[in-house]
C-alpha cells in the first residue's frame, strides 16, 4: 500500500504522460513486489536529486529500503529506457548524476576533499575570453541590457580585460591542476575577440576538450578563427528562430545584415570543412516571441544537417512570462517533435520543457550552498573566478560571489585561499545547469555522510 502523500505525488509525476507512464510501468515489471521498495523506486525516479535519508522520511520507509530500491534501479535493464528518454523530466539531471558518480568513483578523493573543505579544481572550467561585450542584443540573454548591467556599472572591470598572454598562462595552470574540458561561453561573444584564435589554438595544443557556444555571426570561412574552431570538439550556434524577421527581432540584428542567412552559411561551412570533429549543433531558447516555431526550427536544423538541436526555455526569466495559451502551443509542438523525431539531427529537450510537455511543474528548488565551483566554475572576462557562469555575468554578479582574480594570482592559489568561503545559492535566478549540478552534488555528498557509498548510487 502507498500511503505517504509524497509517494502519491511521485506516481502522478511519473504517470503524467502516457509514454512516460508506460516506461515507468516497464521498470516496475522488472522490480520486486515489495510495496515499500516499489514506493522508494517511484520516489527516487520522481525526484532523483533528493538525498536518501530525506527520501526515506518523505515516503515513510527506512534508509535500508531506499538503498534496496537503489540496487533495483541500478540493475534494472528498463530504467535507462525511462531516464534516457525525452519523456522523463529529469533526464538531464539523471545524466549529470551518472557522470558525476562515475567521475567520483574514478577519483574518490574529490568528494572527500569537498566534504573536508580542502581545495578542489573541477575537471570542467568555463572561460569567457571575450572583450566584455556582444554584437547581439538577444531579448532573453543576460546581455540584452548593455547600458545598466555591465562590468563597469557593477564595478567588476578593475584591472582590465584578460589579455591573450594571461589566458595562455591560465590555460597552462588549468592543465596542471587537472582541468580537462573548457567551455567557451558567456561574458559576451567570444568570437569577436581578435585574440580568440590564438587562445583556442593554445588550448587545443595543450589537449583540452573544447566546447564553444556562439551566435556564429562572426565566423569567416578560411580565416584563422575558422581554422581554430575546427580544432574544437563541440560548437553550438545560438539560433532562436528559423524565420529571418523573428530572428532579427530576438537578436537585435538589422534586416540588411541578413544575419540568419549568414549564420546558416557559417554552420554549413564548418560542417563541410570538418573531418570527424567538431560536432556542430544549434541551441534555441523558447520564449514568447518564438513559442510557435519549435517544429519549424526542427525542420530548419535538419535541413542544415546539424548534428543536434538543443531546445531550452528562457529559464533565467529575462523575457516576459509565457501565457497559458503559449504554454499550450509549446506543449503541443513538443509532443509532436517527440512523437516524430527527425532523421540525422538529434533533438535534445531541456528538463523544464519536458515537464511542460508532460504538464507537470519542474523542480526549481535551491540548495543551501552554491556547489558550482566543484563542477563548472568560471573565469570571467576580467579574470574573476566565480563558482558558476551566472555569477560571472554582469546581470547577476556581485563582488561577494568572486573567489578571487586569476590576473593577479595563480589559479591554485585563488582556489586554496577561497576554499573555506561559503557561497550562498541565492542568485536572483539560477541557470538550469547550475540548479541541476547543485542539487545532485548536494544529494551525493549528503548520501556519503549518511553512509550511502558511490557504488550504491542508482546512477552507476
Task: Report on this structure.
This protein has 460 residues and is α/β, with parallel strands linked by helices. The protein is 42% helix and 10% strand. The protein has 18 helices and ten strands. The protein has helices spanning 5-14, 18-29, 35-46, 52-58, 63-75, 79-83, 91-106, 109-115, 164-176, 196-206, 224-229, 244-251, 259-273, 294-303, 324-339, 351-358, 411-417, 432-449; strands at 124-127, 181-184, 209-214, 234-238, 279-286, 308-313, 346-349, 378-379, 384-386, 404-405. A ten-stranded mixed beta sheet has the order 7-6-5-4-3-2-1-8-9-10. Helix 10 (196-206) links the parallel strand 2 (181-184) and strand 3. Helix 1 packs across helix 3 (35-46) and helix 4 (52-58) packs across helix 5 (63-75). The two termini are 29 Å apart. The model has no long low-confidence stretch (mean pLDDT 92).
**Would you identify the regions where 5 or more consecutive residues have pLDDT less than 50?**
none
Terminal CA distance reads: 29 Å
Please state the structural category: alpha/beta
* Adjacency order of strands in the biggest sheet: 7-6-5-4-3-2-1-8-9-10
Helix percent reads 40-55%
Q: In sequence order, what are the helices and strands, one letter per element?
A: HHHHHHHHEHEHEHEHHEHEHEHEEEHH
| Major β-sheet annotation | 10 strands, mixed
Number of strands: 10
User: DSSP strand (E) fraction?
Assistant: 5-15%
